[in-house]
Amino acid sequence: MNKSLNMGTLIGVFGAIAMILASIILSGNSIMAFVDIPSLALVLIGSYFALMIAYSMSDSLGVFAAIGLTFKQPVFNMQGIIQKMVSFSEKARREGLLALEDELEDLEDEFMKKGLRLVVDGTDATVIRDLLELELGQMQTRHSFKIKLINMWATLVPGLGMLGTVMGLVGMLRNLDDKASIGPNMALALITTFYGSLFSNVFFIPWANKLGVFDNDEANMKEMIIEGVLSIQSGDNTRILALKLLSYLEPVSRQALEKELIKD
Asked: Which of 22, 95, 121, 150 could cysteine-pair with 99, CB 3.0–4.6 Å?
């Protein structure tokens, strides 16, 4: 599975930051009025330490690698996989399943290679399905854990933001005699809430959701491969196999490839 830079994440991050800064400036405020290092440290670093309480240290450190994945676009090449499967089906029907053995070493997709290797080895269809679905399920479990990790951080940052606001309000209320400081102190107290909402809703929740989209796409690809492998093993007509696999594609992509693969 190849990966390229995910422009959607990159544009989204810079676009969101630009819109927030523009809104601050256009409303007549100073950007520096929204910059407070202690508040930022409380929200980000404080919530990260809270994340360490919820998870192990190694898992907490892994959250940065998980976030980094959102900036990489996985390329699944579903059309290419279908074409390869159709080619394998034609060869297996023409020359037998053992003829596929020479083709396996050139396969880049390890999941497909494993499935077809089991077919060539004469493994029972039920065992093949169980093994491949087990691997698929474990993959989704790993992905789900990474998503939960980011979602937990997204849950913690608003809470730390609110905690910072309460701390600021307590300090303000203890100095009510100084009327001139009430306004600035109130603004400073609210900045932590601003930071908490910013990082949770603009960054962490969207990042977690994007990983969920990637997981769904990869699972869909692997489910298609399982269907193709079992169809090849059972000796299905190549046309039937193509129709099965094409059902996993979006309508536009399906129609274009269907004209190429299914001919009267």
From this structure: 95
